[in-house]
Amino acid sequence: MLTYLDIPFKDTTFDMQKDWPTVKPSLPFGQGPVLVIDKTVKLAQTPAILHFLAKEHGLEPEGNLNQAFAEMFALQCPDAILTLQPWMITIMHNEGEEKITEAFNNIAVPKFRDSFANYFEVQLKKNGSGYLVGDKLSWVDFVAASLCDLMQFRGKSSALDEYPNLKAHLEKLYSHPKLVEAVKKEHSYPL
User: What is the pLDDT of residue 12?
Assistant: First the structure.
């Protein structure tokens, strides 16, 4: 979202095995990502970071009800990601393609469907604008696209084929000229 907004930033990554024990205690809740503001303020939790940036830079939906719907859908994403953890752990522990694929097909795909895809597909269809809430791009679109990308790219699959609105939403956002290179860079990082 920072790239889309043309906000300069420093993207700091670290090695989970080597650096994590040192970095973890310095982070709010001992987890990332973290947005560091003016080298002093650390803001954690992806929905909070994106919501803050949206308020600061005009990517909030119009009206209180639309803002509440955006928050509702954004907060469902971390819940959905939690259901995918058994599959994600097979990737992080490099448990081999067969075990990763089995976990993807037997755990990730059904959990993604039941905790995320069915609801978001209906919302995109109901809204009719190509965005989750309102008639223009908002911060919640970035949250949802990130989860769809996790399934599509890390799952090396056609996980979104059953969900044409979700697939179109991801393609619309991630093919934006400002985001193409940022998405490639994101895909180069380990999970």
Answer: 87
